[in-house]
Amino acid sequence: MGYEAPCTLNYAGKSAQGQAHLEQKDLVFRGPIRLSIPLADITAARATGDKLHVTFKGRPAEFIVGAAAAEKWARRILNPPTRLDKFGVKPGMSVLCLSLRDDEFVEELCARGADVSARVRTGADLIFYGAPDGGALGRLPGLVGSMKRDGALWVIRPKGVKSITEGDVMAAGKAAGLVDVKVVSFSETHTAEKFVIRRSQR
């Protein structure tokens, strides 16, 4: 997600200037004092002018980040995007789930109203391809033909294993004529890298 802004933090009777970061799972302040608040611990969040007020574990903290950021961050904390939001899944989309054994994810896609298939077909808006190791990346060039020209291919790989790295996935996507545009967490154990067709080739 990567929101960040210059910030004055008022917390526990102290005030300090630094940088605030609203990350996927934490609200973090870096400066003379350090504070990292898991979003799951925040019980209240509101914007007042240029201030973001949060309450966590019964303790208040005030982040002065500017009016635009305060409002945006409060909305994000109170209404975090779902996994499907991050992947850009919309009702009615044609979605392929290939070599991906995740029934819960398929159920999420169906509940969103996507047209989901585990078989290769053309005209897919989104392809989610499970790559357990580097050997599976050789299939990427063949998947390009199943995508709509403005579609996307998400490669889902296990985190922290030597058999398939971010560099391996990026190189394979490039070799298939694709451009990497985004990386998000798929789950606690897997990462998702997004690839699209170059604009000049659409």
Detail the topology: elements first, then pairings.
Elements: E1 3-11, E2 14-22, E3 26-30, E4 35-38, E5 42-48, E6 51-56, E7 59-64, H1 67-78, H2 83-87, E8 94-98, H3 103-112, E9 115-117, E10 124-130, H4 140-144, E11 147-158, H5 166-175, E12 178-185, E13 190-197
Parallel strand pairs: 8-9, 8-10, 10-11
Antiparallel strand pairs: 1-2, 1-7, 2-3, 3-4, 5-6, 6-7, 11-13, 12-13
Structure commentary:
With 202 residues, the protein is of the alpha+beta class. The chain has two domains: 3-80, PH-domain like (Roll); 84-201, Rossmann fold (3-Layer(aba) Sandwich). The chain has helices at 67-78, 83-87, 103-112, 140-144, 166-175; strands at 3-11, 14-22, 26-30, 35-38, 42-48, 51-56, 59-64, 94-98, 115-117, 124-130, 147-158, 178-185, 190-197. The strands form two sheets. Strands 4-3-2-1-7-6-5 form a seven-stranded antiparallel β-sheet, with helices on one face. A six-stranded mixed β-sheet has the order 9-8-10-11-13-12, sandwiched between helices. The model has no long low-confidence stretch (mean pLDDT 95).
